[in-house]
């Protein structure tokens, strides 16, 4: 049964994830400094905060440490997973 996790049926998911990351990368490269500072729908979060959170989560899922960043000044960062 362990072989089922690596069947060709999972390849579309991998392709879709690659497409999604390419879309996010394209969007991020189009943003200027002002765009990165734009508030999001999440109270206290900017566009940069949201993308940083996505990237940090993916690093965690890969077993990689997230970069050390001082977020102590951000009131909306209240726990380890949001750091």
Would you kindly provide a written description of the structure presented here, covering whatever features stand out?
This protein has helices at residues 11-30, 33-36, 47-61. It has 83 residues and is mainly α. 1% of the residues are buried. It has three helices and no strands.
How is this fold's topology laid out?
Layout: H1 11-30, H2 33-36, H3 47-61
Mean pLDDT comes to 84
The largest sheet, given as strand count, sense and whether it forms a barrel, is: none
Number of strands: 0
How much of the polypeptide forms β-strand, as a percent range?
Answer: under 5%
Structural class: mainly alpha
Q: State the distance separating the first and last CA atoms.
A: 37 Å
- Count up the helices: 3
Helix content: 40-55%
Describe, in short, the structure shown.
With 83 residues, the chain is mostly helical.
Supply the key terms.
83 residues
């Amino acid at each position: 049964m362990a072989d089922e996790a690596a069947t060709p049926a999972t390849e579309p998911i991998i392709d879709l994830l690659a497409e999604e990351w390419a879309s996010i990368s394209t969007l991020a490269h189009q943003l200027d400094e002002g765009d990165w500072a734009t508030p999001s729908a999440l109270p206290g979060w900017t566009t940069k905060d949201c993308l940083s959170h996505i990237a940090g989560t993916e690093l965690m899922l890969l077993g990689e440490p997230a970069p050390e960043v001082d977020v102590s000044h951000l009131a909306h960062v209240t726990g380890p997973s949001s750091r």
